[in-house]
């Protein structure tokens, strides 16, 4: 088994990190009662642009995500509903992540073309959220308005085995929500869904399908 | 060589069992449950009857042909590892099993705690782990040879004869095991010796 399963691998800062006090934050708060404030600063007082050492443990995220799923599962009827709800949760993360990314990007510009936008998601967003680039960015051959971003080993479903009776469920719906929020926030309204497309050696491979709205395509035509 | 892995929940119920060697004599599913429950009880008793206070329960049960290693987590879940007496670095293997368990069972939102484990990724990663420590026997010849897993009753001498010939045919890793089972047949009652935990 790969050694990366537990303590070593880390998840890059998601916007969640801003509201989650890290372990270091707790110790400093507790010890400050007895001694002078130590070198670890409160997470709210850290500079937003400093990403080094601010990663969240994959395990901590896995437990949080697991609880999110269990919580959601109790409050929905059917798998469709569950995926929609996960998508909503992802949307809330994505909209905040976009804010943070734009703030951090030194020479950021506003993306006006679809391809530039998708490339931004494929590289920058994925790298910030999951610590690696997405594995592929493709355009659908059948439909003009569909694009696909694939991740061979998505971090959100790393520890999750979906049982047979809900086999259609893809926990990547959460990632789809993030992507949808970022597309929305950049004025590329679209419908984003997640699908499991296993290939050899990557049973968890997930494809994020982005279906652009009609007016986005019309605008794209004018810009050509 | 690792023969089987069982996982017992804190109430003494069997939540997972898997065999990793061919030719093991099977129990019925009810007998597996009884085995788990009995072990759970014996484990509790051994920790109670210890003359030294604060002793852990049974940690290893040894016979001529196999050992059952037990590892109890802080939450009371027990991992039983049935292995060859010569199997090295059991502690490390146990830790790894615990790691796989906490990754793919505890973090899996569809896995209820204390319930039978149905997690595809857990199966896959446990199998990978067992293979990596040399647990899985791919050789199908072993099915005909005498079974190192038989606890009760003597091993048939005729059977041992057959297995000796297959062992010479296949050679290599199996021969040690075969000669050992031969030893059992000469002294049929392989008395289990119980080793209790550290008394400090």
From TrEMBL, chain A:
Entry's Gene Ontology cellular component terms: endoplasmic reticulum; TRAPPI protein complex; TRAPPII protein complex; TRAPPIII protein complex
Protein name per the record: Trafficking protein particle complex subunit
Localization annotation: Endoplasmic reticulum; Golgi apparatus, cis-Golgi network
Gene: TRS31
Keywords: Endoplasmic reticulum, ER-Golgi transport, Golgi apparatus, Transport
GO biological process, one term: endoplasmic reticulum to Golgi vesicle-mediated transport
Primary location: endoplasmic reticulum
InterPro entries: NO_sig/Golgi_transp_ligand-bd, TRAPP-I_su5, TRAPP_component
Species the sequence originates in: Dissophora globulifera
Superkingdom of origin: Eukaryota
SUBUNIT field: Part of the multisubunit TRAPP (transport protein particle) complex.
SUPFAM superfamilies: Ligand-binding domain in the NO signalling and Golgi transport
Similarity section: Belongs to the TRAPP small subunits family. BET3 subfamily.
Pfam families assigned: TRAPP
Automatic annotation (TrEMBL), chain B:
Annotated Gene Ontology cellular component terms: endoplasmic reticulum; Golgi apparatus; TRAPP complex
TM annotation in the entry: none
Predominant localisation class: endoplasmic reticulum
CDD domains in the record: TRAPPC4_synbindin
Keyword flag Transport: yes
Compositional bias segments (type: Low complexity): 164-176
Key words, A-Z: Endoplasmic reticulum, ER-Golgi transport, Golgi apparatus, Transport
Subcellular location field: Endoplasmic reticulum; Golgi apparatus, cis-Golgi network; Golgi apparatus
Location of the region described as Disordered in the Swiss-Prot/TrEMBL record: 164-200
Pfam families for this protein: Sybindin
Biased amino acid composition, Polar residues: 177-200
GO biological process: endoplasmic reticulum to Golgi vesicle-mediated transport
Cross-referenced SMART domains: Sybindin
PANTHER family reported in the protein's UniProt record: TRAFFICKING PROTEIN PARTICLE COMPLEX SUBUNIT (PTHR23249), TRAFFICKING PROTEIN PARTICLE COMPLEX SUBUNIT 4 (PTHR23249:SF15)
Family: Belongs to the TRAPP small subunits family. TRAPPC4 subfamily.
Assembly and oligomerization: Part of the multisubunit transport protein particle (TRAPP) complex.
Record's protein name: Trafficking protein particle complex subunit
Native source species: Dissophora globulifera
